[in-house]
């Protein structure tokens, strides 16, 4: 499972010109689900997302997590994060989860996030979404739980 984290001043997702999710300061998470992902990898990744220190402390160092700052969390499904781009000029998606499995673990990630964090917004799984954001920093990190103990 992969999560592209972007520290934002604000972010919003629209579908057919209608806002479906938005946050102020916090994290935009683009979430990709792979074939081998399960509840354990989903929970490990969520824990990392919520506790990853990418917000400034009073001294200006990245020492605070989303949990500590109580910022917003906007989770958007993005299967293209699971693309294999090592060869050629066209991405391959053989490692990506099926749409059914992807939706299941995306929803599980969101449910668990809502149980642990006060402000969680989402995109719409499988929809053609437009994502707008103001990346604060810019600060962007790629987190993965594939084959690691997170």
TrEMBL record:
Where's the motif Gly-cisPro motif, important for rejection of L-amino acids?
137-138
As for subcellular location, the record says: Cytoplasm
Mention any Pfam family matching this sequence.
Tyr_Deacylase
The regions listed as transmembrane in this protein's record are none
Q: Which domain of life is it from?
A: Bacteria
Catalysis performed (reactions): glycyl-tRNA(Ala) + H2O = tRNA(Ala) + glycine + H(+); a D-aminoacyl-tRNA + H2O = a tRNA + a D-alpha-amino acid + H(+)
User: What NCBIfam families would the database entry show?
Assistant: D-aminoacyl-tRNA deacylase
The UniProt comment on domains reads: A Gly-cisPro motif from one monomer fits into the active site of the other monomer to allow specific chiral rejection of L-amino acids.
Please give the subunit comment from the record.
Answer: Homodimer.
**What is the name listed in the Swiss-Prot or TrEMBL entry for this protein?**
D-aminoacyl-tRNA deacylase
**Source species of the chain:** Terasakiispira papahanaumokuakeensis
Lineage here is: Bacteria, Pseudomonadati, Pseudomonadota, Gammaproteobacteria, Oceanospirillales
């Amino acid at each position: 499972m992969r999560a592209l984290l972007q520290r934002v001043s604000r972010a919003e997702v629209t579908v057919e010109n209608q806002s479906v999710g938005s946050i102020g300061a916090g994290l935009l998470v683009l979430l990709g689900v792979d074939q081998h992902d399960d509840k354990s990898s989903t929970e490990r990744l969520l824990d990392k997302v919520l506790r990853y220190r990418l917000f400034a402390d009073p001294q200006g160092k990245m020492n605070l997590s989303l949990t500590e700052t109580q910022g917003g969390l906007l989770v958007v499904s993005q299967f293209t994060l699971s693309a294999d781009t090592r060869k050629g000029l066209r991405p391959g998606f053989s490692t990506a989860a099926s749409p059914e499995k992807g939706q299941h673990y995306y929803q599980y990630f969101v449910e668990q996030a809502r149980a642990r964090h006060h402000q969680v917004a989402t995109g719409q799984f499988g929809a053609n979404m437009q994502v707008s954001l103001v990346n604060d920093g810019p600060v962007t990190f790629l987190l993965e739980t594939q084959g690691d103990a997170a």
